[in-house]
What does this fold into?
Amino acid sequence: TVGFPYTKALLEYGNDKDVQANFVTNGMWLANVVPEFVPHPPTKIAVSLDAPTASEHNAIRRNARGFERAVKGIKALQDALPETELEVSTVFQPGKRQLLERMPRFLRGLGVGHWNVNVEIIAGVGGPSKLTRTDNTLIRDMQILHKIARDNKVQLTFDDELGHLTELILRLGITDKKFNSLRIGRLVHPEYTLRLRPNTRCS
It folds into this structure.
């Protein structure tokens, strides 16, 4: 999460060690810290947006100015760091497919060509306990969103950082032929991800 005093130091450390730096942020303070990125630009920055309009996103995030500030940060990044890969990250909440159907066109208009969708799967002790949607509905919704994104020339990746989505696909016995058009992404080494939180603890 950007906006903390660690940002500049982390970028300098990554540059010295020849390590790629990727940041995920809700965008609230992004425009303010863009100058810190310029000397050592990160490889990728993901900005969280959960809806294509201010009223919808701010209601979901319970933040009166979250959408406007995130969009301002995205535009500041595009101006200052055109070589840094920029993507928008969205949580796929239950019953929200129709809301997300409008995201690809919005992203295209914003000049963002990469969209990462985090499929909301509830995890219990020892792994996924249940889905927030029925299995078949979830898969169908993913396929619909993928087609809309492709039609708008936006590259959509479904985030499977914890592997729960992959487990679901295997459990349902979905064949590659039926599912191979979808992009499923997963961190190769999630244990190496550094998360900065307001209480200064790292995990």
User: Anything to note?
Assistant: Residues 3 and 33 are 6 Å apart (CA to CA). The first strand starts at residue 22 and ends at 25.
